[in-house]
Amino acid sequence: MLETKHGIISSIHNHITGYGGRYQEWCVGICGTKDREIFQLQQAGSDSLIFRKAQSLEDAQSVMAYFIYIYQLSRAANSNDDGNSDIVFTYKKDIFF
């Protein structure tokens, strides 16, 4: 399901708050559907990784920039900004990758 920028931001805030840790302990990135499937296979049982499908590439980039510049999340090394990247993902650094 496609989510608005504000809905994705709210979901990520709620996830980080519920999971625990400081914002600086988290990474954020964007990916496409194919990359999402690969990340889910690599996840191996960790529940810190979440995905939210944005309405557009621009919305996904905007959400990622918001968390990087306002909350100092690290940009995920595996973030992919190609034209098909409309999924925002977030995970805790010490658990994934």
Largest pleated sheet = 5 strands, mixed
Distance between the termini: 26 Å
Contiguous low-pLDDT stretches (5 residues minimum) are none
H/E order of the elements?
EHEHEHEE
Percentage beta strand: 15-25%
What structural class results from the helix and strand content?
alpha/beta
The residue fraction in helices comes out at 40-55%
As a whole number of angstroms, the C-alpha radius of gyration is 12 Å
Shape type: globular
Placed side by side, the strands forming the largest sheet appear as 1-3-5-2-4
DSSP helical segment count:
3
Number of strands: 5
The average pLDDT is 87
Can you summarize this structure?
The chain is an alpha/beta fold. It is 42% helix and 22% strand.
Describe the structure.
- With 97 residues, the protein is α/β, with parallel strands linked by helices.
- 42% of the residues lie in helices and 22% in strands.
- The protein is built from three helices and five strands; from the N terminus they run βαβαβαββ.
- It has a five-stranded mixed sheet with strand order 1-3-5-2-4.
- The protein starts with a strand and ends in a 5-residue tail after the last strand.
